[in-house]
Amino acid sequence: APTLGQLAAAKGRYFGSATDNPTLTNAPYTAVLGGEFNQITVGNTQKWMYTEPSRGQFDYTQADRIVDFAQAHNQVVRGHTLVWHNQLPGWIDTVPAGELLGVVRNHIANVAGHYRGDVVHWDVVNEAFEEDGTRRQSVFQQKIGDGYIAEAFKAARAADPNAELYYNDYNIEGIGAKSDAVYNLVRSFKQQGIPIDGVGLQAHLVLGQVPSTLRQNIQRFADLGVDVAITELDIRMRTPRDATKDAQQAADYRAVTNACLAVTRCVGITVWDFSDGYSWIPSVFPGEGAALIYDENFGKKPAYWAVYEAL
Ligand code: XIL
């Protein structure tokens, strides 16, 4: 039977998974990771706390292992992420306001420069908006101001001219105040000639709550002249699983896959790891989980077969 990666490739797309370093030594895990997908996202170890743990000191040891794995398995890599308010090293808070833009530019030049030619997409800026569409008051927003997002994209373009540059966020899958804010950002970047190539819809979704405007929302971004990717898909439920919830989850995965395939510029789908035993959900949403397409023992769930059929 074809893999999800092969089915997606036949439609000019990718179907990928995030992964993290601790699982790279787990043979049953890596058999699926290397065999099933044609794209990998570096789930943690390209984040700032790993890549620049002290100011001006860069470390790519862990992320390189994931990129090497992907290349050995003919998988393209999404880089994740250059500028984000979480998983920052502590020293960031001590940078004087007047120096922070230079620090951001230097970080991007180094990290995107190191991976130049090795990543197809960069999530340049992650999660910069609040639910109401106002700017999140991150250290970057507070010390640099509104312009930090444009500056990050310009620095990323300079560091790796061939990587496609994405703005990535959650709760922007459907039309609403937050996705409107991202829409307006992309439109203004396009008008001003600030480089941006794509919008990542994280899609950390809740069982039975795929937004009804998902396809329309993907289409309106595409109509601005950017690609769209589903970047961190998982669909969580109250645990334990049962057959009814599994069937709903399968329908939800099918709906997301169909919405992406309906828009030419929706270039691919990434699950935020692939097995329920290796998902971030239970640690962050107590009582919830079973959000992915394989169970803890790498058995294919109904959600897997729904994606398979939709692709
Ligand atoms: C998560 C990782 O999966 C966890 O292992 C880590 O502890 C926290 O970050 N949005 C993002 C991802 O953009 O980087 C986050 O990843 C999940 C939410």
UniProtKB/TrEMBL annotation:
Keywords: Carbohydrate metabolism, Glycosidase, Hydrolase, Polysaccharide degradation, Signal, Xylan degradation
Positions annotated as active site in the UniProt record: 232 (nucleophile)
Domain GH10: 18-310
EC number(s) stated in the UniProt entry for this protein: 3.2.1.8
Domain of life assignment: Bacteria
Keyword Glycoprotein belongs to the record: no
Catalytic EC class: hydrolase
Catalytic activity: Endohydrolysis of (1->4)-beta-D-xylosidic linkages in xylans
UniProt family annotation: Belongs to the glycosyl hydrolase 10 (cellulase F) family.
The protein, known as: Beta-xylanase
Source organism per UniProt: Saccharothrix lopnurensis
